[in-house]
Amino acid sequence: MSYLSVTGNADGSAGIITVDFQDILFLKSNTNESQSILVHTRGGIYYIMGLLRYWVKALNSSGCHFSIVDRGTAVNIDNVARLDRGFKVAYFNNPSDPSSQNCTIAYHRYRLVEKELTMINPDIVIG
């Protein structure tokens, strides 16, 4: 298991905790804080400092499968349960579940993401 050191708030005053790489659903640039990245997990949202491309490269070099799906968003391909081709959305559990987390995929990146995902998980549900 590999872990990422994160904090519970943008200024770091919540202290540092660790999140397993496998628990990360997606990363999103924080528009409210410069050079801050929101780390989305099923358990909550955490913060790291730096640039999105830096973290995607570092995590992928550590054995993860992150893909930049929009200007400020990178998805953990291993955690995507379903793709919505019409709305260009990646779901991390059943979309009919009201607590289901999801992220949008840029129109021009969708086909590449779908191809990458089906190579890793041929049984992925695409609707």
TrEMBL record:
Domain HTH LytTR-type: residue ranges: 15-88
Domain of life, per lineage: Bacteria
Gene Ontology molecular functions: DNA binding
UniProt protein name: HTH LytTR-type domain-containing protein
Organism: Paenibacillus donghaensis
